[in-house]
């Protein structure tokens, strides 16, 4: 970030210095290289205003003589959470006394983590059709747009909408959702499209010389077909389309991420569809895969293809928040991945990855990191009142994380943290 600011500052100063010297003191132009474009701007804009501009000449020359900034390795931190699955108790948790809606409480306990990352991704499982269509819960969800506002407030900049619930309320709800996100041009919504052309766009995040592509698909839309005249509406996990997108992404980006909505609900290990697509992603040279949909955590793997290329896969992050009434469905994960580009070798790779287990506190409807959780909070979690959930405590959560995440789950640190380089 610092390099970028320096560069912009220098460019701004260079431009102003050209303007200044040309207007005030034409004999000192020799240290800079004015282009015809600059000269044109100067002639048209600044001829009549010589006196005001002359004053700041000296400090500008000093800055220009500074040593050029040597680029260091570029570094990007990514954070992602799983399903925001808005059952009735979740949307009612945001109704204020005056009738307004606010969902900032859902994200307040992970705010510090969000502040530390540049790419912040949330899987918005349910459609944000808004109050116009009436809010609804399982099986055909429609959620308040104020959930999206709170995601923006928390700092998320990538919102995933390719989910099996995208078509729950038909085209109108999707249209409302797209229009809602259009109010936030700084945020990239993935998974829903308004045209064939838009569906072909590869979305990227660029920080100086490091470009990262992000792709999002769902295995299906719960049997509700896409409108026949709008087959582009939701990104579906289609082998041909996915292959085409990944190859395009590989051309324009240093690092390719696929965010598939896939798998079997409540299963802790990948199913055959996940295995099939994981192989395809790996063969095509994808760098990172973070999956959602099973509503429980699944394992993490590093897969090496025949050419020796490594791909990190989080098969499922589970729920971030939901009203689901089973104890393993309130335990999800927050993925954190550090990505680095070495400007000397032009290679981009993962230096470190992490999974912080997170717990949905039902009743209150907020989500805690496991490292901030304890038996007192567990005893206050409404999930404990559900049948088969009376043993929900720190011991249960730690054992579940060990069962799913294996030996990489560090019981002391209460997370997975693996250094790759
Ligand atoms: Zn789903």
Characteristic key phrases:
421 residues, 2 domains, 23% strand, ten-stranded mixed sheet, 16 strands, Purple Acid Phosphatase, chain A, domain 2, six-stranded mixed sheet, alpha/beta, binds zinc ion, 13 helices
Can you characterise this structure?
This protein is α/β, with parallel strands linked by helices. The chain is built from 13 helices and 16 strands. The strands form two sheets. Strands 1, 2, 3, 4, 11, 12, 13, 14, 15 and 16 form a ten-stranded mixed β-sheet that branches. The protein has a six-stranded mixed β-sheet with strand order 5-6-7-8-10-9, covered by helices on one side. The chain folds into two domains: 2-64, no CATH class; 74-419, Metallo-dependent phosphatases (Purple Acid Phosphatase, chain A, domain 2), CATH 3.60.21.10. Helix 1 packs across helix 4. The structure holds zinc ion. Zinc ion binds at residues 125, 163-164, 261, 293.
Task: Summarize the entry for a quick read.
This protein has helices at residues 2-24, 36-46, 50-54, 57-64, 88-92, 111-115, 145-154, 170-182, 196-199, 239-252, 272-283, 375-380, 394-405, and strands at residues 74-84, 119-123, 158-160, 188-190, 203-207, 210-218, 255-261, 288-290, 300-304, 310-314, 319-321, 331-342, 347-361, 366-369, 409-410, 415-419.
What is the 3D form? globular
Q: Count of helical segments?
A: 13
Q: Provide the helix percentage.
A: 25-40%
CATH superfamily of the largest domain, by name, is Metallo-dependent phosphatases
Mean pLDDT score, rounded? 88
Q: Report the major sheet.
A: 10 strands, mixed
Annotation, overall tally of beta strands = 16
